[in-house]
Amino acid sequence: MRNKGLIWLLSEKGILAEDGSPIPNLPFQNDSVTAGNVHKPGIAVIINKHEVWTLIDDKWEKILTSEIKLNCICWVETGGLLLGTEQARLAWARNGELDFIESFDLLLDRKQWYTPWGAPPDVRSLSVATDGTIYANIHVGWIARSKDNGNTWQILKEQIEMDVHQVVAHPTNPNIVFAATADGFFISSDYGKTFVRKWDHIPEKYQRACACFAESNIYLVSVSNGPHGNVAASLYRSKNEGDNWEKVDGLPASISDNIDTYQIASLNDGIAYIIVNNTSLFKTRNYGKDWIKVEDKFPRLFGMLAI
Fold first, then answer.
1. Distance between CA atoms of residues 8 and 280, nearest Å
2. Is residue 101 part of a domain?
């Protein structure tokens, strides 16, 4: 279903097209669509943080409702649907219920996980490599990896910041995984066994989102001066896996809100989109070097799906 060069915008008013028009025939167009994923089986989205809907064979279906808050969702290579939740848990969507993964619940490192404000930690992002390796980003608590379709999990914490905001498996090379963290950009070429911090003296190190163009190995990362207030966010790109970074052109000079987890989406042929200040959409056609504004009057946007 991917690589048609289209995006869907996940918003507080359903799913929108690039021009802001509603995607037709949605049974939840007036609800918040907070996360989603596209893969071979179809499209899956989280509605109002507590419902999961899927689009398969042009038919929308609500497959479960959860009492626990749902944060992120992804299809795995075997066709299963994985969810990350509050309280830093992982579960499969099965038979209308959440089937929590016991091996993830029993990770010994769990006792070290936390949030800066004292609440229980979350699973913040999920990503799956082309060979089926699954990565889950715990906030705050490093990255967890499964190489056996979610049966067993290992915490990846060698030479990486604990406060990870998004983990991304490389779109074509399964050896590579990278992350945006509170202390810069980290990348691994050995399935996350070890990481290298690469930020090339960018003035700010706080990061929320990252992405990579599959056919060019050009990386994008959002940067700001911190989590709160007018954060002076910006976007940087690297043509050499983070060895050097350059600030992109075309975005507003002043961006008050962080460019958040899942708010950068890269497609094919040098096209990518970025959400700015949660209500504006920008687009590039040259691998992130230059950006143009698409629209700036959207309802609150949470993320995007490349269709």
1. 14
2. yes
Report d(CA 178, CA 128) in Å as an integer.
12
In a domain, 1, yes or no: no
Residue 1: pLDDT above 90? Answer: no
The closest of 188, 134, 184, 143 to 162, measured between CA atoms, is 143
Q: Which residues contact 194 (CB under 8 A, 6 or more apart)?
A: 158, 159, 188
As a three-state string, the secondary structure of 96-152 is: CEEEECHHHHCCHHHHHCCCCCCCCCEEEEEEECCCCCEEEEEECCCEEEECCCCCC
Which structural domain, as residue segments, surrounds residue 232?
7-306
8 A C-beta contact, residue 237 and residue 287: yes
Burial of 281 (0-12, 13-18, 19+ CB in 10 A): buried
The total of structural domains in the chain comes to 1
pLDDT band at residue 99 using 50, 70 and 90 as cut-offs: very high
Which CATH number goes with the domain that contains 151? 2.130.10.10
Extract the tokens encoding 119: 């609440």
Is the sign of the CA dihedral 166, 170, 171, 175 positive or negative? Answer: negative
Is the pLDDT assigned to residue 78 strictly greater than 80?
A: yes
User: In the chain, pLDDT over 70 holds for what percent of residues?
Assistant: 98
DSSP-derived secondary structure letter, 27:
T
- Whether residue 2 lies inside any domain: the answer is no
Mean pLDDT, rounded, for 28-40: 95
Within a domain: 15: yes
